Each structure stands twice: as structure tokens, then as C-alpha cells.
Protein 1
Amino acid sequence: MHRQVRMTRAALMAAGALLCSTAAFAQDDGLRAGVREDMPELMELYRHLHANPELSFEEDETAAKLAARMRELGFEVTEGVGKTGVVAVMENGEGPTVLIRADMDGLPVVEQTGLPFASTVKATPATGVETGVMHACGHDTHMTAWIGAAQQLVDHKDEWSGTLVMILQPAEEVGEGALAMLEDGLFTRFPKPDYAIAFHDAAQFPAGTIGYSPGYALANVDSVDITVKGVGGHGAYPQSTRDPVVLASSIVMKLQTLVSRELSPLEPGVVTVGSFRAGSKHNIISDEAKLQLTVRSYTDEARKLLLDGIARIARGEAIAAGIAEDQLPVVTVADPYTPSTFNDPEFTETVMTGFRTRFGEDRVMQVPSVMGGEDFSQYRRADPDGVESLIFWIGGVPEDEWQAAQNGEATLPSLHSPFWAPDAEKVIETGAEALAAAAIDLMPAKGG
């Protein structure tokens, strides 16, 4: 079982204060100096990416721009992997293979940050409704730090030996991009990694801090649809109907017992009904109601318990309501789903030991696992005995906003908020150095 250690409010405040001082950097070397020298160019790239987001599996211009940059650095680059993904390979002698991932897609969100380079892009997603597009999850900082790390790894080629596989992944927001790249031969057409690493910006930590969770870090994510059938009729004569609204309401309430009474209290789980739709008029009892659920878990066993329980409750409540066998609820689980993300504990601690030495003890903290999802999990899941993986967090909350929130004077926006504007410079600078340093530590040069 994984262990959770909470980052206390006092620890977070201390970390935030520490970032204001020169003591924030415990180790200063050529790698850090190189990142800092590149920051003006990287920030120009970041502003371009932020102003020009693209939706999932539509990241054509983003992929082309960054692929060209990787070719200039000397990588062997392949585009169109998993639709719009990019794979950049650099072989630099004998040694392990390290995969570094960044995700590319934006979200159908109308930006309200007020930034001078805010996105004004509009697009039409699968819903068919035109919307604004925004990097509301910070993938623009991920890509920019990824480029920054690549530049440093090229500049420091004499310090590492092995194979570097750097990938730009599409469609993380819909949970399909990693699987698309794997199904398109990521581990067969290209060197299969011994290690896979990535980071995600965080909207709950001070900018420049690093958070990590050994073991389960993010959850299984399942989307479940339940179509509840009934017998419609006049609202004044309910005795002649089988009301699907009442039945669906019973199902919603009974679903709450799955986590509270069937799942172990020591096993995290979430069953949330996000949508309940039925009927069209005050005095008409509909013949159908539709529920949309998100289901979160960590282990495969807990996932099975929750999904089996949803199907059983929907069927049982319908039978109790007198619904005929051929009219029982239809339960559909979306495929593919996003598997839980597991950080190999020993590997995680190895990388974090290096980060503590490099960034200082107070900037690197173990944090609670979350019930959000990340399809970075697919890379380890494709070969759990051969690939050790780690995804970590880099705080993005600007200093003034962090202090205001600690004083109770402001509420912080979350990831996916139209107001999320991280301190991109600190995220990118920390991310580029962390990714490059981790790779160098994992692929030491002969005699290093």
C-alpha cells in the first residue's frame, strides 16, 4: 500500500518564503546557469505556446514547431506518432534509456487571465459547440521546460551516456494520447525506456517547489453512463407510469453506499454523479433518464468493485421499481479509461534524493496523492517489469497570490480554471533543470 504524508500549511508557507531568498538554491552549477541563460528565449517560446493552444489530437502546429526545434538540437525526430505525437531520440553511447514526456493539448476554456498574451483562439471540439481554447492546465509550461531540458542535455552531452527519448504527447486531456503513441509503436519503433519521467505544474503549491507522491500518485479515471428506462405518462396520473426520475434518484442515492459501505475505509474511491437529465415539461413523466458518472480509484481491485457495484445497483433498483427485464438500465463504461499512475517508490526516492541535494530540502516535499487522472500511467503499465516511472509536481502559484491565500485574502484558481496563470518563469526554470538533472543522474558518463 502507498503511504500519504501531507504537506502541512506551515511547510508550504516556509517553502514559499524560502523561494524569496537566495538560499532557495542549494546547488549551483553549470546546468542551472545554462537554464538561466536560456530563459529569455524559453519565455518567448512559452508566450507563443500560451497564445496558440490546440485541442486534443489537433496539436499540428505545436508539434511541428517543437519538432523543428529538436531537429536543430541534433535529435532524430519522428512526427505523427499516435496522430500528432513527436518522438525525438538522441543516442549518446552505452547506458540506460530515459524517456522524458511533455503533453501538448489545451482545453476548451475561454481564457480570463488578463495576460497580454492570453489566448483568443477559438475551435469546435467534439461537442460541436464553438469555444475558446486555453492552456488552462499548464501544458505550455511543460513543453517549454521540456525544450529547456533538451537544450541543456545537448550542451552537457559529455556528462551522460545512454539513449534519450523525448516525446511530445497529444491528447492527455482526453486520456487517449499516451495509448495512441504506444499503439503506434512507441516501444517497438523506438528505443524502449528503462525510466520514464515527467512533471505537472501544480495550482496548490508555491511556484518553484517540487512535490512528489511515492506509490499511487493519481487515480484510475472511469466515465460511466447509465440510461434509466421507465414508462412515461401524464404527471397528474403517476400510477399509470414507471417514473424514471424517481428510479434514477434511488440509484444516485444508493451509489453513495459503494464507497461508504463496500470499499474499505483505507482504500480511496470516488463515485460522483456529474449529470442527471430527464424530461422536458412540468406535467410530463419522461420515459427515460440519463446519468453521467466519474469514478475514481487507485487499485485494479477497487476499480472492479466500484464498476461492478454500479451495474448491480442500477439493475437491483430497477427490479425493485417494477421495471421489466427487457427495460433494465443500460450501464456503459467508456473505453479506454485512464489507469492510475504509480510512481515506483525506490526510483522516486532516488530521483528526489538528487533533487533535495540540488534544490534544497525545503523545496522538495512529499505531498498527498490525488484523485485526478494522468495518462502518463500508460507508459509504465505497458511494461511494468521493464519501465520504472515517476511524475512529480512543480508548484506554479505566484508568490503574491500564495501569500494572499495564506492570509485568507484570496482564493486560488485550480487547474482547468479560466483564471489559472502560473508563475511560468519559475515553473519552466525549475522544470527544465529538474528534468535535465534527473536524466544526467540516471545516465552517468563513464567515469562519472
Note: The first strand starts at residue 76 and ends at 81.
Protein 2
Amino acid sequence: MRDVLPDLESWWQAGETVGLATVVGTWKSAPRQPGAAMAVTPDGSVVGSVSGGCVEGAVYDLAEQCRATSVPVLQRYGVSDDDAFAVGLTCGGIIDVFVEAVSRRTFPELGGILADVRDGRPVAVATLVSGVGTSPVGSRLVVRPGSVEGTLGSARFDTAVRDDARGMLEQGRTGIVRYGPDGERRGDDSAVFVASYAPRPRLIVFGAIDFAAALARVGAFLGYRVTVCDARATFATRKRFPEADEVVVDWPHRYLAATAVDERTTVCVLTHDPKFDVPLLEVALRRPLAYLGVMGSRRTNADRARRLRELGFSDADLARLHAPIGLDIGGRTPEETAISIAAEIIATRHGGSGAQLRQLSGPIHHDLSAPAGDPSTTFGDPSAPAGDVRASAHDG
């Protein structure tokens, strides 16, 4: 929903009622992921998309209906590969869409949520999209690291959802969580959609070279908060890296040791100079990172690995390094190399192989939104869409 928030804010501030459709679950080759949204305004204009065009017309009509009646609806589109085209979902997947009316009356918390997202403060919105309980469908719980706003009907339910939403927010995950009627974590009576608005994940690029400038552009396009760092003030300038959110002049290892990173952070080391690389990688290999890529020839990488082993790192530690960095697409220019690196980052994040799709069989889209082994994320069960997370760590 992040894409439609600026327009949604202007309509909400003006006192308008908007029909908002949000993808809350997907199965098989669905075109959009949970959280994708489409808004329909009183003048009939549309912002956003829930299916890339497949079922937009039907969702538009349902959004108009909900805007008029203020009665939320959870609707499934697509049934099987054989008749998906007949129902409008030409990709053959299934999406669950939650459609509701959004206004100052129905969603008074929206102003604070918009301010949090705009200012980069983490916030999660948990919405009851189906089930039984004392609160109606459409009830919300707004969860922040230090506070909770709203209710889903009972203290036990609110506590369970609060804890799970905070965990999802820390990981930047969005999806369905299922509960019993009073928040029991092993129940299946109610579905709560948790939309996480975490700050943008970080992309830290070390080495103020032309390849870094191209990678900063691609990283910004992909939604990362981009930092370029180099110890050489002559090269690390705002003029050379206008797309970066920040340009830092510091020794790479010192900067990485002092800056905040998490499991969503991507680090790309483009310096290919041992006096920079080895101290930096000694720090990086001890930090929680989503991706750690290092530029250099095979000879350079072999020498780098030898130096790191001498510092006590094991083969398992070195297996975290994507070195040489990027996928083999034959790229040579800085821009082509940046695409190669970005492709590997995306493949790592979503579990892709990097192979040509025409050489593969099975689902096109991978889903890693829930913990490994969670049966609710396996393909082939339309009752458990991708992104559906069963909160079973302990019984509520």
C-alpha cells in the first residue's frame, strides 16, 4: 500500500471516502504480492494496482460498492489454471483482496500512520479481514515498537496480534496471521492481515567508483536507502552520487562497525583493494546481513579468501561472500554490472536460482515470507496463500 499512501493522504485529509483494495494473500503465479493496493476515489479515478490489470475491473466495482456501503469484503479472484482466464486472472494464480471504505470516520488512525511512514518510523497495521469475534471485520490494531492503538475485540487477541506484528515488523514482513476466536495462536477461526511499514532496507556501497554510482541508481530504484562510503574525500562527493541518500567519507571498516545494520541490509564492496577490503570484511562477516557481495577477479578473490582464513574465518563464513559479485549476464559497463549485482541481490532475497525462466518448471514466483518449513507457505494449497503465517511459536 506504500505506493498509494501519498494520494490516500490527500483524500483522507480532504474528508473524502475512498474505496481501498489490498492484496492480503496470494497463491501460485499471482502478479502482485501481499500489500499491493488500489484506491478508488469519489470522482472515479484510480491509483495503484492489485493484479497488474488482470482483475482490476472487478475490483474497481467492488471498491465502489464498499465505498458506498462502508461494508468491507474479502474476495478471492482466480480458481485454477484451467479456468483462471475465464475469471480474469490470466496468469493462472489466485489473489485474496480485502476491500474497504477509508475515511476519517472509518480509519481515524491513518494520519498518524502516514506520518510514521513519511518520517521512517516503523509501524504495523493489523486488520481483521475474516473470522469470528467481538469486533467486526475491518477492525484494526496499529502496532508500534512502544505503543498500540485500537482493538480487535479482546485483550488476549490484542496481545497475541501485538506480539506477532512486532516480530513481523522487525523482519519487514507483510502477510496473514491466523488465530482462534480469542487470539489462540493455534486457531484458524480468524485471519488478521499485518501490513509492515518498516524503514527502507539499507544498501551500503563501499568504493566511490563509477560502478558504485550505477549501483546507487539501481538501488534507489529498487527502494533501498543507499549509502556510498569511501575513505577518499576527493571521490566520495554528493555530486558524483546524487541518487545516494548519503555519501560518507570514512574508512569502510570503521564506518560499518559504527553504523546500524540488520538482517535486511545489503552490503556491496567494490573497492577490490586489500587494505580496504580485508578489514571491512572482517567486520562485515560478523554482522547480520541479507547479502554481502565483493567485487574482484578470481585471483583477487582467492587472495582475499586466504587473508580472511588467516584471520580465523572458516569456509562456512566465507560461503556468505558473493564473490565475484553478481550474476553472469555478460555485463561490462557500470550500468550492466549494476544490473548483474542487483539481479543477484533480488535472487538471494527471494530464493531465485538466477537461471532463465524458460529452462525451469514449476512456480515462477518464490515465497520466503514465512519461516522455513511453515506449511502455510507451500505452493499448491489455495487455502493457505503465500504470505500466510501461522503464529504457532507458543499457544496463546
Note: The chain has three domains: 1-107, 116-199, 202-350.
